[in-house]
TrEMBL record:
It comes from Porphyromonas pasteri. The keyword Hydrolase applies. Keywords: Hydrolase. The keyword DNA-binding does not apply. Pfam families: HD, HD_assoc. PANTHER family: DEOXYGUANOSINETRIPHOSPHATE TRIPHOSPHOHYDROLASE (PTHR11373:SF32), DEOXYNUCLEOSIDE TRIPHOSPHATE TRIPHOSPHOHYDROLASE (PTHR11373). It comes from the Bacteria. This is Dehydrogenase. InterPro entries: dGTP_triP_hydro_central_sf (IPR023293), dGTP_triphosphohydrolase_C (IPR027432), dGTPase (IPR006261), dGTPase-like (IPR050135), HD/PDEase_dom (IPR003607), HD_domain (IPR006674), PHydrolase_assoc_dom (IPR026875). Residues 60-261 form the HD/PDEase domain.
Length: 446
């Protein structure tokens, strides 16, 4: 793969003869991607979607929106470091936008990376997979397979694949190319660039069967290396590694801070986990800064900021050292997997604590249990309504669905996908409210 082709400012859905519109403007086409995402309704809805903890009461913790903004900030920093070094590494390649392009692409892709996630955090993805794998949805498998549909798209439902669909699919009333982002930004969110046929028990893939042709178009434009001849699979776009690192750093470190605010971890535990990232000399310097801060939450925040800065610089260095392998498609694992021993040990300690103490906390488990019940009811009733659209109740229920979601398709695969499009776009609050209304638990005020 080659940087000159990988950093393409051509837009998905644009005519091949059409040139980017913003040449000479204050904004590059990659910066326009960022702005287009920020001003979209789908991005705004992230403010009412769970990140890990339930939507906040008296204590504010992260939701999908704040998480995405913070990931984007880290992505911009990673892109700045990498872009600056690559511009010096390839001084004769003046047409390739290393400095102006990489940070803008990565920050935009970071904004979009969670836009396809359903309500209730990762428990929402698990609830959908459970519905089709071991719940009432299993009854649709023979019908989907008989008509040639790809059941694995639903069995291993993945928010990353749904983000690719959201950003690229021409929903009813939308322009060709969906959000019509640049090819480079679109490719930089595809963390798992292969179809659900290769997902297996990992439950990770990058695009649905309906978006395979779009993925082929993106890969051809950017020169992504094809991996397998049968099921569609590609090497990652190199900038995916920076988007992934920004996400990994953000959620792992910010979850520790949020857990301390919610008293799931003590302040001493949280600060001990964060302090372990530093050498003795670095820790003495950090402690000098802490002497001027007396508020416990601010002390934790200061430590967190120092850890994030350390991880960003180290991840960027790993990327630059492995550039040749990344471009060849032979780099293995994430950037975080290649941290130096002390940093990696501290990161893994945070990860182990998060899985043992945070992600299994009662508040988080309660969200998962509620989400499972809500998704089962919504999927059941919306799919039954599409199978019997002439029933009076079906017409009433389907009238609530925006026309862009194209309910009432002829295939069972299409009916399921349009239902998932609708549900995935919901906020936590909207999904809960709709569940209460269709089950009779809540009535409109009279």
């Amino acid at each position: 793969m080659h940087w000159t082709q990988l950093l393409s400012d051509r837009r998905l859905g644009a005519d091949r003869a059409e040139r980017p519109q913003s040449r000479g403007w204050a904004r590059s086409d990659f910066e326009r991607d960022y702005d287009r995402l920020v001003f979209s309704p789908a991005f705004r809805r992230l403010q009412n979607k769970t990140q890990v903890f339930p939507l906040p009461g008296n204590i504010f913790v992260h939701n999908r929106l704040t998480h995405s903004l913070e990931v984007s900030c880290l992505g911009r920093s990673l892109g700045n470091i990498v872009g600056e070094v690559l511009s010096e590494r390839y001084p004769s390649d003046r047409e390739t936008p290393f400095r102006s392009g990489i940070s803008a692409i990565v920050s935009a892709a970071c904004l979009a990376h969670d836009m396809g996630n359903p309500p209730f955090g990762h428990s929402g993805e698990r609830a959908i997979s459970a519905y089709f794998g071991e719940g009432p949805g299993k009854r649709w498998e023979p019908l989907v397979r008989a008509e040639g549909g790809r059941w694995e798209d639903f069995l291993y439902f993945e928010g990353n694949a749904n983000a690719f669909r959201l950003l690229t699919h021409q929903f009813r009333g939308r322009r060709p190319g969906g959000f019509a982002l640049t090819y480079s930004t679109v490719a930089s969110i595809v963390k798992y660039p292969y179809s659900s046929l290769l997902a297996g028990g990992k439950s990770k893939f990058g695009f649905f069967a309906t978006e395979e042709e779009t993925m082929k178009e993106v890969a051809t434009e950017l020169g992504l290396e094809r991996r397998t001849a049968s099921a569609l699979s590609y090497a990652r776009h190199p900038l995916v590694y920076l988007v992934e690192a920004a996400d990994d750093i953000c959620y792992q470190i910010m979850d520790i801070e949020d857990a301390a605010k919610l008293h799931i971890l003590s302040r001493e535990e949280a600060q001990g986990l964060l302090s372990a990232f530093f050498s003795e000399a670095e820790l003495r310097e950090v402690q000098q800064g802490l002497r001027h801060i007396t508020d416990p939450n601010e002390q934790t925040a200061y430590l967190r900021s120092k850890v994030i800065n350390l991880l960003v610089e180290e991840a960027a260095g790993i990327f630059l050292d492995a550039e040749r392998e990344i471009l060849a498609g032979t780099f293995s694992g994430s950037l975080i997997h290649h941290l130096e021993p002390r940093t990696k040990a501290a990161y893994e300690a945070c990860s182990q604590t998060a899985y043992a103490r945070i992600y299994r906390a009662r508040e988080v488990v309660d969200v998962e249990l509620a989400g499972h019940r809500i998704f089962t009811a919504l999927l059941d009733q919306l799919l039954e309504a599409q199978l019997h659209p002439d029933y009076q109740y079906s017409r009433t229920l389907l009238s609530r669905v925006s026309s862009q979601y194209e309910m009432g398709q002829s295939s069972m695969y299409g009916r399921i996908q349009s239902t998932l499009d609708y549900i995935s776009g919901m906020t936590d609050i909207y999904a809960l409210d709709l569940y209460r209304r269709i089950t009779g638990m809540n009535l409109p005020a009279v």
